[in-house]
Write a structure and sequence with these properties.
single chain; 456 residues; NADH Oxidase; Rossmann fold; 7-stranded mixed sheet; 16 helices; 21 strands; 21% strand
Length: 456
């Protein structure tokens, strides 16, 4: 009877062969040994795998968002001498939220202004690319991309208290949370290694000089926006590194806690929206308040952000209203925070009602809250504005009959059926009603709203 040989592993019987054949086949024996080793190793690894390893494999990566910032303004009526004078007497910043337009302007001043122009020149000689600018906001932490003028989200954790603690810990007789954290925290980071190729032994000096240039521009911009700040290069660097999860070779070089002055926020505690403008603005400008009605998703990003920016520069207080008071996301990935649910918006509380367009706005066409709000605002002769496809809301509210109106061409028939006089212009103003044909006219749209408010 022919003898047989079996090879056993933890997975069971693997291989069987004629013993006499094995005696004459060294190659077969080696192959069997190799297979035995491989399968045994795999089985052992499976037995040793821990629950933590399994969880690590199934962990979902953090979903980062890109927030496109409004285009920066490159001129203002505030003189450099005035800004330098005001910067000598600044108070602590409040925690009240800044607008995306203000954040975008601060980011541009810090680093965006250094991006090469189309003619190949830069505003500041040399490249500041090795330095990175981070923003800590209520919505999370973000890295600024000067090339696209956008914020790349790195975390959805609110780390402002940790950063403020790291700053105040080096200042005597100051504690947190007794002191405010500021609505917007800006951190400039860098590594001297990135400057070694260009500056050799002077790499660290060059890095600090560039950081100082960026910090100065940032501070001047903050003051010109009527904001205040607490700035420091003497902070608990390790605490800031942990909060932002910076690389081991990267160090925080400068931190600024930015926000509205505490005294002004306290004075405006009885009103919604942004704090009042500076004393140089007229009382009529200060009192103007507008609500932007925006869908929870799919709004037209440029239309919302550009309209908010222009209104803010004109000292018009703005509030965003949506289905719920929560984070809202645009059609192109930008996001904003809704301040009020639509159910709490009252026509008598605002001077202007602005309906932002976008694919998501279609769900508002027949929404009783939205259409009813437009009807009540029209009855009170408030300034009413609608962009892109949002004029359909005004049409369904019955306020466009006999009114010269524009919108995206696809909505022409609906507007005409509601009695509107469709002009197809980029922006159309008729009395207290302003409409636009799309986001490409966002700046003109916002400026027309400001004019309508001034004359209403």
């Amino acid at each position: 009877m022919m003898a047989k040989t079996y090879f056993w592993t933890s997975a069971g019987r693997l291989w069987m062969a004629d013993s006499r054949a094995c005696a004459y086949s060294q190659r077969a024996r080696c192959l069997a040994m190799f297979l035995l080793l491989v399968i045994s190793t795999v089985c052992w690894g499976q037995q040793q795998a821990s629950p933590d390893t399994a969880r690590a494999r199934s962990a979902r990566p953090v979903r980062n968002r890109v927030v496109q910032l409004p285009a920066p303004v490159t001129s203002s009526a505030v003189s450099l001498e005035k800004v330098l004078s005001l910067a000598q007497d600044l108070e602590a910043p409040a925690d009240q939220k800044l607008t995306l337009a203000q954040i975008g302007q601060l980011a541009w001043a810090a680093q965006g202004v250094t991006v090469p122009r189309t003619d190949g020149t830069t505003v500041v000689p040399g490249s500041l690319v090795p330095l990175r600018v981070y923003f800590s906001l209520p919505e999370g932490t973000f890295l600024y991309d000067p090339q696209s003028h956008a914020l790349q989200q790195t975390s959805d954790n609110d780390i402002r208290l940790a950063v403020a603690t790291a700053v105040y810990s080096r200042q005597p007789n100051v504690s947190v949370p007794a002191t405010t954290t500021g609505s917007c925290q800006i951190v400039i980071t860098g590594s001297s290694r990135d400057f070694t190729a260009a500056h050799g032994a002077n790499a660290r000096t060059a890095m600090l000089v560039r950081t100082g240039q960026m910090a100065q521009s940032l501070q001047l911009q903050a003051v010109s926006l009527d904001l205040t700040y607490i700035a420091s290069s003497d902070m608990d660097g390790n605490a800031v590194k942990r909060a932002f999860r910076l690389a081991r070779t990267t160090e925080p070089l400068y931190v600024a806690l930015v926000g509205y002055p505490l005294s002004r926020v306290a004075a405006d505690a009885g009103t919604a929206g942004s704090p009042r403008a500076s004393g140089s603005e007229s009382a009529s400008q200060v009192s103007r308040r507008a609500v932007l009605v925006v869908p929870p998703s799919g709004f037209q990003d440029q239309e919302l952000f550009e309209t908010s920016r222009v209104l803010g520069l004109a000292s018009v207080q703005t509030v965003i209203a949506s289905t719920r008071a929560t984070r809202i996301v645009g059609a192109f990935g930008g996001f904003a925070q809704a301040d009020l649910p639509l159910s709490q918006v009252k026509a008598e509380d605002f001077d202007a009602f602005i309906f932002i367009g976008g694919i998501g706005t279609m769900e508002y066409y027949a929404n009783p809250l939205v259409v009813g709000l437009a009807r009540r605002a029209g009855a009170q002769q408030k300034v009413m504005a609608a962009g892109s496809n949002a004029p359909v809301i005004l049409a369904n509210a019955g306020v466009l009959r006999g009114v010269r109106t524009t919108a995206v061409p696809a909505e022409r028939n609906q507007l005409v059926a509601a009695g509107a006089i469709f002009t197809g212009a980029a922006v159309q103003t008729d009395g207290h009603i302003v409409t636009s044909a799309g986001p490409q006219a966002a700046t003109l749209f916002a400026e027309a709203i400001v004019e309508a408010l001034a004359g209403n």
